[in-house]
Amino acid sequence: MICITVNPSSRKLAKVDLLNAARQCDMVELCLDRFIKSPDIPDLLKVIDKPILISCRRPQEGGHWDRGEEDRLKLLRTAIVAGPAYVELDLETAAQIPRYGQTKRVISYTNLEQPVSRITPILERAAKVQADVVKFTWPVPTMETAWPLLGAVVKPRSLPVVGLGLGDAGITFSLLGRKYGSPWLYAALEKGMEAYPSQPTVSELDDVFHWRQIDSDTRFLGIMGYEPSMAPVVRALNRMFVESGHNLRCLPLADAQPENMKKILELLNIRVVVASPRAGRSILAIASEHEESARLGRHADLLVLRDNGWSAYNGLWRAVIMAMETLLMKHSASAAASQKPLDRRNVLVIGSEGLGESVIYGLKRRNALISICNPDDKVAQQIAQKFQIRAVPHQNLYNTLADVVIFADFKLKLGEHTGRINPSFLRPTMYVADAAAQGLDSPIIQEARERGCRVAEPLDVLAQQTALVFKTLTGRDAPPERLREALAGT
Questions:
Q1: What is the CATH number of domain 234-314+464-488?
Q2: Model confidence at 358, in pLDDT bands (50, 70, 90)?
Q3: Pairing mode, strands 272-275 and 302-306
Q4: How much is the pTM?
């Protein structure tokens, strides 16, 4: 089940929120701690035919109640008499409010500062105050902190346990809770209405993660460095998994120490991990073997578990170069050039360590004539020496001729200030790609289009990269048009 939390401030808004939430969930949590005037609880319980969980939390539990404790206890007693399906009570409050009627008691334990290491004493206390369900809430900024919370939920117990993870691993916990049989998951109705920061919305769980089809047999693809820019890739992969009949889902993985991450991946039976571009260097420590491009460029975006351990691969440079080759072939009048579009081409990489180096590795395999430029000339010189290519001083960039320009630096910006690239550098004769665009229309790509350059579309680059991941997992090619539609959100 999924429980949507609504936290209205008035009776009118409460009815609207309840109706909107009920259309998308199995149960609604109605928080009373923000109401300006006392709510008419019996009237609100009639608004929907879904089970309602009543709560009224104090600030130390993540709530907004700013009045006296006696008034809060009175409000909760009144709510229980009205007969909701569930009421949430903290341990202290539960000792003061006895069971009444058919309302089930969710006994909550919240620590907003740190994870809890010993939960057995809390479960024993919850049983003494007649708990029907126990709820744990604590921060999960890393996979290490999420693991005990997951253990609390999935271990067979006499009392059912639900959890709410706060932080980067919160959505990880929700998806794993679904697989391992948590009584329900929590979600926000929409952005801006979260009970806690970073709480996933119901539309995110549905549209991006397809959580409703997750079951005990679902296998996971790990996603390291999950961030908003990765959502199109995750959405596309999950949609392709559903449409192709594979019981696979993407699972975001928050930070963890390499050795701990290996153990977690083993326990979750995850055999393939995709890394966001920004996590491309940190994942190298997990792998015992590195593809040459990953080793030279110190950047990887794919981990695969082989018989002898984890191997790191770099697919981004392939995707960027394949998209650029497709663009060049499209505009080539020469048959020879169409077969090897980058051969002997003057290619300028404006990049930095990691991403820029991996692109250079791929260009050398295509026999391109490569130059490197960076706002920091020392960085450019170091990369040039490493790959035996030409370094272009930043001050000479605007006098440098290049057929193909590939931007490969996440920190790079256009502008006239020191350390930026003046947009006047872009000319209509250039073919341009932005390896750091992550499927989005970056300012660099937008400027290149406006100045008449021929652009390797970021969506094409992302589609190439995503198709590689899909084939690694399933052994099948993803339908190109369906993949592009999924990445574009259509």
A1: 3.40.50.10860
A2: confident
A3: antiparallel
A4: 0.82
